[in-house]
Amino acid sequence: MNKKIKKQRVILLFIVILVVIIILPTFSRYIYNNIKESYLNSKQFYFTSDLLNVNNNKVSFSNWGGNSVYSFEFNVNSKLNELTKVNYDMNYELTCTIVEKDKATLFIDSENGNSTEGKEDGTIKIERSILSSQNTDPVKVYIRPKQKLPLNTSLTLKLKAVTTEPYKKEILATVKIIIGITDTDYTIVDSVNSEYAVLNLANSNKDTTTIKISYDPDKIRIDLTDDLFNLNNLVSNLTDINSKQWTRTLDSTQKYIKEVKFYLKGQSSKKIRFYKIDRTIDYTYPNTDENSYSFNNGSILKIKME
């Protein structure tokens, strides 16, 4: 056999073995976790969450301007669904850690000082309970920056919930929060069967800024009855920062708007409605539910500050 070919085969075999060594522990852990999950379910023991899971769910959000307090919410449950629940109170330990502890402070349940605040190592560890009357414990996480964070900076949160009653189970999540838009925060409030999704915009900067919103008009369409979109103020280009000017870009059919630009005053907020073509979709953003639209596709709205 040609020595060169033999050497190539040896290298290829080495690479295959190396890949298997790397993948096998992760795959084995995944199989073990899911077998254990099935076993606990068979014992009518349910400890679940719309964010955390046994395989360390990973999610990222990019709707923070990096200057104001950021928050998101998730639920820890003692139920499999609305029909399958446990009938006793369940205690569990929640651990939240912010990796970049020098950049921000972590709070649980409140940002006004009456909450549990992260220690010097950036970790909060608290005992919590899921009441049998609710089978859900809502947890709200707040992140307060220690200084203004620049665009594209990211913070990583590690979340873990553990219960031992009557079985031991651990669920985890890693949340990456990206400063995706300078000085402007936004959320989208929506629900299944709602006629429209509502965009909540907040300019944390002291100066007026230009906001650009892009979207797919085959999925949602902006509410032009809003005073912001008065046709008397429609222009081809924004030229007066102290005015109510706005611009629009039409889609390929020249029938529907796919992008708007307008001014948003400093230290102000604005709500804008978007009518949904398919009301069965929930466009809430951010959304920690791994089955939701935004979890799998990102925000339905693309927002930039110019």
Question: How would you summarize what this structure contains?
Answer:
With 306 residues, the protein is mainly beta.
Describe this structure in words.
The protein has 306 residues and is mainly β. The chain contains two helices and 18 strands. A hairpin with a 7-residue loop joins strand 5 and strand 6. The termini are far apart.
Annotation keywords:
single chain, 18 strands, 5-stranded mixed sheet, 306 residues, mainly beta, 5-stranded antiparallel sheet, 40% strand
The total count of helices amounts to: 2
Looking at the structure, what is the overall shape? globular
- From N to C, what is the helix and strand string? HEEEEEEEEEEEEEEEEEHE
Strand element count: 18
Helix amount, in percent? Answer: 10-25%
* Main sheet strand line-up: 1-3-8-5-6
Strand content is: 35-45%
List the topology elements.
Blueprint: H1 3-42, E1 48-49, E2 57-64, E3 70-77, E4 90-98, E5 104-108, E6 116-117, E7 123-130, E8 136-145, E9 154-163, E10 169-179, E11 184-189, E12 196-203, E13 209-214, E14 220-222, E15 246-250, E16 257-264, E17 268-276, H2 293-297, E18 302-305
